[in-house]
Write a structure and sequence with these properties.
Radius of gyration: 19 Å
Strand content: under 5%
Order of helices and strands: HHHHEHEH
Helix content: 55-70%
Strand order of the largest sheet: 1-2
Largest sheet: 2 strands, antiparallel
Oligomer: single chain
Number of strands: 2
Length: 235
């Protein structure tokens, strides 16, 4: 399989910084490791260790900014995001099972539900970040995947006046176009988990709506079923 490479040129916007994504991944991995063994299929150290090892090649390829993409790095990044979301869904199922058989302590369930909820926000934020318009590198490198589907529409993309000026204070067509970063998708994921619906960002494709709908469902289960049941156990 040939590897496609893309480096920023004069016709690209500024590549996205690696740090926000790395911090979010580290938080999700730590939350997974700290969850009770009752809601984990494997020993607590295995999955975090696997995720950490998979992230290392991506950091080596783009240590500071996401300016280089190869076929293997694209699929590895997608795999990490999807796997993190899937693992968290298994944790939700196991947590509900603990509630149904009456073996869960109320305080433990509340803490675990919070860990799962936060991890869900991060995991789906990563999925949206990878899904939209071919991923973080393609969104900022002209000609890499110009035919990629746009899955989400942000308010800043509606108004060209929201574009940021160049350092010289003059509009620059090469660098002024606003592009969403990971923080934007993470905030969108957070709002979907809390409101169970889009707020300012609109899904444009069926796949985006399906993923959003599923995330909203898991958020409803955690907030309406798990937490309410745990409060009943405490009282």
């Amino acid at each position: 399989m040939s590897a496609s490479r893309a480096r920023p040129t004069a016709t690209t916007t500024i590549p996205e910084h690696r740090l926000p994504v790395l911090i979010a991944l580290a938080a999700a991995i730590a939350l997974n490791a700290l969850m009770p063994q009752q809601v984990q299929l494997l020993p607590a150290w295995i999955l975090p260790s696997i995720f950490a090892l998979l992230v290392i090649p991506l950091v080596i390829a783009n240590p500071r900014r996401l300016s280089l993409e190869t076929t293997w790095s694209r699929w590895l990044s997608i795999g990490i995001s999807v796997s993190l979301a899937l693992v968290n869904q298994v944790t939700i199922v196991l947590l509900i099972q603990e509630l149904l058989d009456g073996s869960a302590a109320g305080a433990t369930v509340l803490l675990t539900a919070l860990q799962v909820w936060v991890t869900n926000v991060i995991a789906f934020g990563l999925v949206y970040w990878e899904l939209d318009r071919g991923g973080p590198v393609a969104r900022r490198v002209e000609g890499l995947r110009d035919d990629a589907t746009q899955d989400f529409r942000f308010p800043q993309q509606e108004d060209p006046q929201q574009d940021s000026p160049s350092p010289s204070g003059e509009a620059d067509a090469a660098t002024s176009a606003w592009e969403p970063g990971f923080v934007d998708y993470a905030y969108f994921s957070l709002s979907n988990m809390m409101a169970f619906s889009p707020t300012d960002v609109m899904p444009l494709t069926h796949r985006a709506k399906l993923v959003m709908g599923y995330q909203a469902l898991t958020g409803f289960i955690l907030l309406a079923l798990v937490i309410s049941r745990a409060v009943n156990v405490l009282t």
